[in-house]
Amino acid sequence: MTNILNAPVHPDAATAFVRRVPDPAGNILSQFLPDKPIEDTRVEVTDVELTSSTAPYRSYDGNIPRIKRDGFSVRQIEMLPMSLQGGKGEYERLQLEKVRQSGGSDAAIVEAIYNDLEKIVINIRNAVEVYRGKLLSTGRVTVAENGVFTEADFGVPASHFVAADTPWANAEDARPIEDELAWTEVYANSYGQAPGGQIVSRKTMGALRASKEIRAAAGLDVGNGPRFVSNEVVNAALSAFDLPPIVAVYDQMINGQRVIPEGKVVFVPQNYADLGNTYWGVSATAMELLNAAQTDSSFSDMPGLVGVVIKSGPPFQEAALVDSINLPILNNPKALMVADVNG
Fold first, then answer.
1. Long-range contacts for 212-219 (Cβ within 8 Å, ≥24 apart)?
2. Are 318 and 1 spatial neighbours (Cβ–Cβ below 8 Å)?
3. CA distance 274 to 5
4. Cα-Cα end-to-end distance for the chain
């Protein structure tokens, strides 16, 4: 049996706290797949086929043609629950000390609860960052953990997964500008406009800074000039060919693994919001708080992280818990392109 406690930390206070905990430093993929709360457990994804039609001429007194509508299809994708609770430790020790003293201040217990809540949220935000990275580097979200085996494939066109003819680490022979001119053409023809930026690793940025083709495009003497140029010079060279700038140099590692694999260059649209979102829905714990009237919040406040203190047993235990349902989703699969520059 599990109960949600109102003391010493009320669910409303716990929920307000967990929603204020920021992403860990380095978790920046929310810039490209920003959080979006919705009052549901499913997300409607619309696949839109954009048309670039024109208005035709007609004869005087002739029939007026009808406009061609954009084609679209709608599908629903279930979000997945992501929850975590605090372990046995300081919280139980402080409860024992309070009983031993026949009461007393809850201050130390409250602090321990908030410490647990903060640690849990950091773990959840790190997990979401990992799945954002999977989506941006593969076009899919594959979950294979804790007894859950599922995959959401958002249908990124096969032509949007490209590779360099020569590894970019080969500073003399690689042709990153030539590669990107070809890739940008594919992207623009598919999506309707050129990409707005690229996400690269520090190693890939270093390869661009050393590239003979980039240095030549910058007007440098590749025989006697510097072997490396600055990041600003790289972006200037890209701009000279109407290629998208480097918008993020990203090397985040979580649990000892790179969030985006080395050698992947992720192309994103000019308006990041067109790419997708990380959706947060209404969790089972949020519904329980509403049904049991244990919150002053309304249904519209329920999407997102929810923090509570629970009591379960026997054996009786109390723990901080953070519950959520979420999923990073591509709203427009044609807005993503991924290049492998390792060769």
1. 212/171, 212/172, 212/173, 212/174, 213/174, 213/175, 213/176, 213/177, 213/178, 214/176, 214/177, 217/177, 217/241
2. no
3. 41
4. 56
For 176-199, give one letter per residue: b (16+ CB within 10 A) or e: bbebbeebbeebeeebeebbbbbb
Burial degree of 19 (CB within 10 A; 0-12, 13-18, 19+): middle
331-342 per-residue burial string, b: 16 or more CB within 10 A, e: under 16: bbbbbbbbbebb
* The pair of three-digit structure tokens given for residue 315, joined into one six-digit string: 């054996």
Tokens of 80: 């997945």
Q: Which two tokens stand for residue 241?
A: 């060919």
pLDDT digits (tens, 9 = 90+) for 138-196: 999 988 888 888 888 889 999 999 999 999 999 999 999 999 999 999 999 999 999 99
Backbone angles phi, psi at 36, to 5 degrees: -145, 110
**Measured between alpha carbons, how far is 18 from 121 in angstroms, rounded to an integer?**
6
Q: Please state whether beta strands 317-323 and 84-85 pair in parallel, antiparallel, or not at all (unpaired).
A: antiparallel
Q: Report the pLDDT value the prediction gives residue 276, as an integer from 0 to 100.
A: 95
Whole-angstrom CA distances from 16 to 296, 307, 331 are 12, 8, 29
Return d(Cα 275, Cα 271) in angstroms, integer.
8
pTM of the model as a whole: 0.86
- In the chain the domains, ranked by start, together with CATH numbers, are 158-273+333-340 (3.90.1690.10)
- In whole angstroms, give the CA distance from residue 210 to residue 230: 9
Phi, psi of 16 (to 5 degrees): -60, -40
CB contact burial 117-145 (16+ within 10 A = b; e otherwise): bbbbbeebbbbbbbbbbbbbbbbebeeee
